[in-house]
Amino acid sequence: MPAVVLVGAQWGDEGKGKATDLLGSRVDAVVKFNGGNNAGHTIVIGEGDHREKYALHLLPSGILTPGCAPVIGNGVVIDLGVLFEEIDGLEARGVDTSGLVVSGSAHVIPPYNRTLDKVTERFLGNSRIGTTGRGIGPTYADKMSRVGIRVQDLFDRDVLHLKVSGALALKNQILVKIYNRKGFDVDAVTDELASYAERLAPMVADTALLLEQMLDDGKTIVLEAGQATLLDVDHGTYPFVTSSNATAGGACTGSGIPPTRITRVIAVVKAYTTRVGEGPFPTELLDAKGELLRDAGAEFGTTTGRPRRCGWFDAVIARYANRVNGVTDFVLTKLDVLTGMDEVPVCVAYDVGGVRHDELPMTQAEFARAVPIYETFPGWDEDISKARTLDDLPRNARDYIAALEEMIKAPISAVGVGPGRDETVAIHDLLD
Ligand code: GDP
Ligand code: IMO
Ligand code: MG
């Protein structure tokens, strides 16, 4: 019966992959409902010498759990080359990917949109977004402009040719006349996209119908967001956002599961904050403390390898994520990274031009000028990676968790103390 949504509460890379994986064998399907291969989820499985690390971009994290059906929903944009590369990579490591189901209504990322993403960023110069360059923005723009190519279009060459030719009529003008690049050949693009059709066909289904039937049969479904609340195109730090709805509402539109079937919303939040790409970030640390967090937390992008910008925990943002997503449970990750700090500051409000803001300011202009107001908590030195219950944690770590819980106004139901599946402090059951 339950459909559980799992979202990121900050600017991405909170550890959503690990959190989804943690729910594991009790879940019958994991659905990716937004984004594409801009996402990067690192999942670590096994213990000691048997630790295996997986980096997923397009496939839902459930793919690593035997018996859990991985589903790519209609809200996703798919780079077909990357999809099959990822499938082949996992199969080569012994992961069974045969259960993968792909929505016929999902859009595909055509090669010209990868080029357009990159040249647009170059053109923007200092005003760039800092995208992943994967063609995500232009493909969602095509979807809204009704010139997108969908998975279902791949199976009729005439339809595909017509759609590619319609899209390129304008895109080639832009590429050639504005960006001074070579245009794309309609036949070549059609051939490239059509070349995936045969292999893709058995995976394609009406995923919304399939998921509805699973819910009727009493199955448990997790809807896993890529990106995060502050990167959401409506609710994030626009224009420094991705081009999809990464918040809980997006789980419905991106999967076809209606809101009345969602029973729980889990938000994953890091014990500090990181951001990749451009855009405002009030608690960013540009000094040695930021370096320390980056090194201790291995904060380098899973997708582009870029160093992540690091800063202290921002309770204003986490509270906002609670509000926008209707969070029932928070999963607090990477608490272990804070071990060894003398003190741990938390941003409790902002000062914007002399005015205190306890909630996110209404405009981005104000948010860009927000100066954090900090409350500082004492740190801890003890190694917490072996902690599995709250009682195993040192007093100061427990107090830090309790203080955050109070500020973000929802229960923290699990705490990550290391990247491994087992390195988690369980507080409340996330699926009961
Ligand atoms: P996602 O995009 O939200 O799935 O997150 P990423 O996988 O991009 O980044 C999170 C990183 O933190 C990954 O390398 C995880 O293996 C790692 N990670 C997740 N939870 C924890 C934790 O509690 N402690 C530590 N030290 N690492 C963690
Ligand atoms: P996961 O799922 C962190 C950021 C990019 C850029 C902006 C727009 O791993 O948390 P895009 O290519 O989507 O048009 O880029 O969004 N971004 C992410 N940052 N984690 C992600 O995914 C991200 N996906 C996109 O860095 O600032
Ligand atoms: Mg990531």
Fold topology:
Elements: E1 3-8, H1 16-23, E2 29-32, E3 41-45, E4 52-56, E5 69-72, E6 77-78, H2 80-92, E7 101-103, E8 107-108, H3 111-124, H4 136-145, H5 157-178, H6 186-194, H7 197-200, E9 204-205, H8 207-216, E10 221-224, H9 248-253, E11 262-270, E12 273-275, H10 288-296, E13 309-311, E14 313-314, H11 315-325, E15 329-333, E16 343-352, E17 355-357, H12 364-368, E18 371-378, H13 395-408, E19 412-416, E20 424-426
Parallel strand pairs: 1-10, 1-11, 2-5, 2-10, 5-7, 6-8, 7-9, 11-15, 14-16, 15-19
Antiparallel strand pairs: 3-4, 12-13, 16-17, 16-18, 19-20
Helix pairs in contact: 3-4, 5-6
The structure holds guanosine-5'-diphosphate, 6-O-phosphoryl inosine monophosphate (IMO) and magnesium ion.
Guanosine-5'-diphosphate (GDP) binds next to helix 1 and strand 3.
Which features does this protein show?
single chain, 432 residues, alpha/beta, Adenylosuccinate Synthetase, Chain A, domain 3, Adenylosuccinate Synthetase, subunit A, domain 2, ten-stranded mixed sheet, four-stranded mixed sheet, 13 helices, binds guanosine-5'-diphosphate, binds 6-O-phosphoryl inosine monophosphate, binds magnesium ion
